[in-house]
Amino acid sequence: MREVLPCVDSGTVPPGLLDHPETERARISRRIIDLLAARDRLDDVIANTRNPPPSCDHTQ
After folding, report:
1. 3-class secondary structure, 12
2. Are 48 and 56 spatial neighbours (Cβ–Cβ below 8 Å)?
3. pLDDT score at 6
4. Could you tell me if 3 and 17 are in contact, meaning their C-beta atoms sit under 8 angstroms apart?
5. What is the distance between the alpha carbons of residues 34 and 37, in angstroms, rounded to a whole number?
6. Model pLDDT, residue 26
7. d(Cα 39, Cα 46) in Å, to the nearest integer?
8. Taking the mean position of all CA atoms in its chain, how far away is CA 16?
9. Residue 54 CB-density burial (10 A; 0-12 exposed, 13-18 middle, 19+ buried)
10. Do 13 and 7 meet the contact criterion of CB atoms below 8 Å apart?
11. Angle at CA 49, nearest 5°, toward 48 and 51?
């Protein structure tokens, strides 16, 4: 962020300055999508464990 602070004083953004934050934002967004998918799969496992489908033959 120190690299961005001079822009606040000058009011101009040097070319390429936003490339890194935009790249980082995209990386974080992909990670969020991956985490949401993992959470959804885990929700399915929990639901199937609590209420196994009739076809499941691994019940206690």
Report:
1. coil
2. yes
3. 62
4. yes
5. 5
6. 96
7. 10
8. 24
9. exposed
10. yes
11. 60
Q: Which amino acid is at 7?
A: C
Where do the DSSP E strands lie in the chain?
Answer: none
Is residue 56 within 8 Å of 45, Cβ to Cβ? no
More confident residue, 26 or 7: 26
32 vs 26: CA distance, rounded Å: 10
Select the more confidently predicted residue: 35 or 56: 35
Written as six digits, the tokens of 35 are: 């985490």
Spatial distance between the Cα atoms of 15 and 33, rounded to a whole number of angstroms: 29
Residue 15 and residue 21 in contact, taking contact as beta carbons nearer than 8 Å: no
Which of the 8 DSSP states describes residue 25?
Answer: H
